[in-house]
């Protein structure tokens, strides 16, 4: 992580400022990725319910759609939406699901773009 930040830091900038800047980029990327789905609240809740109990790790995140498909069925229109996500969108969905199941129900507003 330190090497990552050092590679992005300017001469007059602290590593903390670099970390803050990178976090802001990451947060913006997640917000745009998840809102690209254009989900209704009902669809978002179905996806979150389908992801309940699924292990979400950096290794499993790219195939998150498969967990949704297994629980909702391959032909479900919501599954097609999830499957169409960009890599950033998949990461955003993984992040939102993890937050939701840790008790942050406000993340639902982020998913549906409120």
Task: Kindly list the characteristics that best describe this protein.
single chain, 114 residues
Low-confidence stretches: none
Profile the largest sheet: none
The helix-and-strand class reads: mainly alpha
N- to C-terminal distance: 33 Å
What can you see in these coordinates?
- The chain is mainly alpha-helical and 114 residues long.
- Helices cover 67% and strands 0% of the residues.
- It contains 7 helices and no strands.
- It has helices spanning 2-8, 15-35, 41-51, 64-72, 77-83, 87-101, 107-112.
- Helix 2 (15-35) crosses helix 6 and helix 3 (41-51) crosses helix 4.
- It is elongated and about 55 Å long.
- 22% of the residues are buried.
- The mean pLDDT is 87.
Summarize the structure.
Helices cover about 65% and strands about 0% of the residues. The chain has helices at about 1-10, 15-35, 40-50, 65-70, 75-85, 85-100, 105-110.
Please render the helix and strand layout as text:
Layout: H1 2-8, H2 15-35, H3 41-51, H4 64-72, H5 77-83, H6 87-101, H7 107-112
């Amino acid at each position: 992580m330190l090497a990552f930040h050092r590679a992005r830091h300017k001469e007059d900038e602290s590593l903390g400022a670099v970390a803050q800047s990178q976090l802001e980029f990451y947060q913006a990327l997640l917000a745009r990725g998840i809102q690209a789905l254009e989900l209704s609240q009902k669809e978002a809740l179905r996806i979150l319910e389908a992801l309940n109990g699924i292990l979400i790790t950096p290794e499993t995140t790219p195939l998150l759609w498969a967990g949704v498909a297994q629980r909702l069925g391959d032909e479900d229109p919501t599954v097609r939406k999830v499957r169409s996500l960009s890599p950033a969108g998949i990461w955003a969905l993984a992040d939102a699901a993890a937050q939701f199941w840790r008790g942050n129900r406000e993340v639902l507003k982020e998913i549906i773009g409120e």
